[in-house]
Task: inverse folding
């Protein structure tokens, strides 16, 4: 269900369509967030112009929650980004203890590769999290 600029509600059937980011990377339906701008440049493509593939580097502001599903990183003095951690997210690092989501601690420098929702500052699909230096 999508609200048009005129305020109308339109239902979009995704069967047989590809959902893509603004830079043409595949996007999971679960990654669409309230406020995202969607368009249909063709009959077979739905484009989410709020999302694009990025590599972010920052400091872990809040380590993964007890369930290991989300963490927060500080990428600049004025920007904090929520990072969704899924079952396919790879965790890399040189420290022997870096092997699980819970091994990422506050203040760890990290590099995150994934799909960023620019409207919400949220990485909705995280491919990799690299702990970039030893503790």
Result:
């Amino acid at each position: 269900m999508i609200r048009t600029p005129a305020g109308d509600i339109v239902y979009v059937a995704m069967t047989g369509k590809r959902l893509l980011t603004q830079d043409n990377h595949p996007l999971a339906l679960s990654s669409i967030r309230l406020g995202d701008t969607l368009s249909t440049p063709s009959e077979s493509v739905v484009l989410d112009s709020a999302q694009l593939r990025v590599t972010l580097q920052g400091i872990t502001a809040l380590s993964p929650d007890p369930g290991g599903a989300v963490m927060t990183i500080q990428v600049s003095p004025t920007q904090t980004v929520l990072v969704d951690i899924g079952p396919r997210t790879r965790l890399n690092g040189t420290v022997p203890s870096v092997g699980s989501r819970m091994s990422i601690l506050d203040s760890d420098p990290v590099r995150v590769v994934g799909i960023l929702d620019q409207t919400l500052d949220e990485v909705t699909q995280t491919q990799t999290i690299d702990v970039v230096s030893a503790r």
Observations:
- Residues 2-49 form one domain.
